[in-house]
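Need tokens for this chain, all 210 residues.
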Amino acid sequence: MRLALIHALRHSPPPIEAALARLWPEARPMNLLDDSLSADLARDGALTPDMTERFQALADYAVGTGARGILFTCSAFGPCIEAVAARHATLPVLKPNEAMIEEAAATGRRIGLLATFAPTLDSMPPEFPPGLEVVPCLAEGALAALDAGDTAAHDRLAAEAARSLAGCDAIALAQFSLARAATAVAAATGLPVLTTPDSAVRKLRRLLAA
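Here are the structure tokens for all 210 residues:
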């Protein structure tokens, strides 16, 4: 079964591929990457109609190859993904965070949201259900460290930032690229840590098996 994985950050493919290999090895992933999307959003400071059209074009291509489901892996583009879901209503089209948010809501009422990409902390909290307290936290410098290839610094900075979330019931890691730091974050805080790749794979598999 072919699954389309659409990325706006070049660090996103390895975590979701690892999650698929562990949790759903029979799936056949295809990766589509346009890392200019995240760069353009950081530059413009807002989503634009042009960006939505670019998302539609990527999804149309994926569907044309026979993809049975689509997972977007960058968390700052919710409205663009909603437009794709409306256009391809017969397929599962997942936002990167929706499965993790569902699992977080079942874990507790106060959820720490750790991100390395600042726009995520604006776009993602409204996706959580009413009544859930979301505590945002930016791991300053972690994404730059990852961009430079310093994975150890990325994980250390994520864990250090997460210590401020110690009063939460669980911590949700907003970026797919943050999944690699889950063990370090859990060790630093002693809290349950949810990652977008694992949650997304579990939900996609459930939907496509129905």
